Structure prediction request, 491 residues.
Amino acid sequence: MKKIALAVLVLIALTALNAAGLLQKAQSPDKSIPTSVVEKVAAVDYGKVRIKEFPVAVQCWTYRKFTFFETLDKVKALGIDAIQAYPGQPLGKSLPKAVFGPGMNEAEIGAVKEALTASGVRIVGFGVCEIGTTEPEMRKVFDFAVKMGIPTIVCEPADDDYSLLDKLAGEYDIRVAVHNHPEPAKYAFPAILVKNLQGRSRLLGSCFDPGHFMRGGLKPIECLRYLEGRILDVHLKDRSDFGTKKVIDTAVGDGKAGLRDILAELTLQDYDGYLTFEYENEKEVAAPEPAIRRSLANIKALTYYAGYTQIFQRRWGGYEKHGWNHYGPGYFEVDPATGVLKGNGGMGLLWYGAKVYRDFVLECDFMCASKDTNSGIFLRVPAVPTSDDYIYHSFEIQIWDAGEGIHATGAVYDIQAASANASLPPGQWNHFKITFRGKHIGVELNGKTVVDWNGVPGGKVRDFASEGYIGFQNHDSIAPVYFRNIYVKEL
Prediction:
């Protein structure tokens, strides 16, 4: 009897909790952003971030009133060469019953590939698609992606167990990005995705959509930081306000999503995917081009590294010295998570062998472990280094806060002194902007011009070439130098 009475009491308590809405709340998904994430976002001065240039694409849903073949023409006219296809879009009048997706037959796939080649547009993603829950269902989507050469699948997995999805992503070497449609969709809030991705490979991640997070009242920048390290795709949209009442899609940068902060955070995370425009304003569905052009202009106005190439890049597995070579003693250690290079031993030279540069702008960040940190950046190394002879035939921009005159930070080593001491104390990141055009060398250190000089041989430099490699010196392990964010723009 006591057990029965206890069971009755528990049932009554649960009924009361449910009536009060407390039980439902306890079982509902977490809609909040962790306080630690909010505090991290608040601590960043996004206005000081130098924003990198991202490739752009168009989500074909933007042209949902048009066929796939018509969409290709419209995207090409915008000067954009990449799309993300969605399942179910009619292919075109020449194939009246065919729609884009895994159900296409070989003839239809051939027609699509022919149209892509003719337009110069490529498919960089597919979604949001139904991925299924069984292996045969999932393989059907992965096999289709392989046939079409699609590197990223965008979906909303029904199961919380990503084991099978992780297995297939690795087998096919295809990214799987989970989208965040608004409520009642499963991933309307990022907490459940963060939980499901724990312990999974970097081929699984997020398709970040700031507009849909805004529908749920979430700040996009906080969601983006919460998903740090897992952003595989971006459906870039902006909205006139948060929520849904009397709110519309706007050109990206014209709404309240916070475009600059988003681009800055993506830069800090070194996101290496596309900004895929998805414009859903129903009043302009027949002609979204003005909004897309406005979006492109807004992004361009915020982009610092326009026209630059990031020559030390993050790849799917992390940062690596792909394209780089080392001559001499010592080495540079790379942090695969952050892309920071740390000098060890020396003196040696880490040089970028994938490209010979003539006239260029080189920008990078460097940090000194102490005032005695000694390093330098070599410009136009004329040939593959096989001995120390390169130091006599290329200019070195010096890093040595303990040095003086022609041997101090910012100087053209042994020839031209820096006009001012503009370096920051050890332990802080400095920024170099080095311009080499013809014989002229300009050096900006932390935004201040310290060298404006027409190069001539002198000091240790006997002569210099009209083109060559770029190299970074490791001097010793006692006071190491650190480098990151290495960009080059050819002039």
Summary: Confidence is low (pLDDT under 50) at residues 1-27. Residues 2-19 form the longest helix (18 residues). Residues 136 and 142 are 10 Å apart (CA to CA). The domain at 314-490 is CATH 2.60.120.560 (Jelly Rolls).
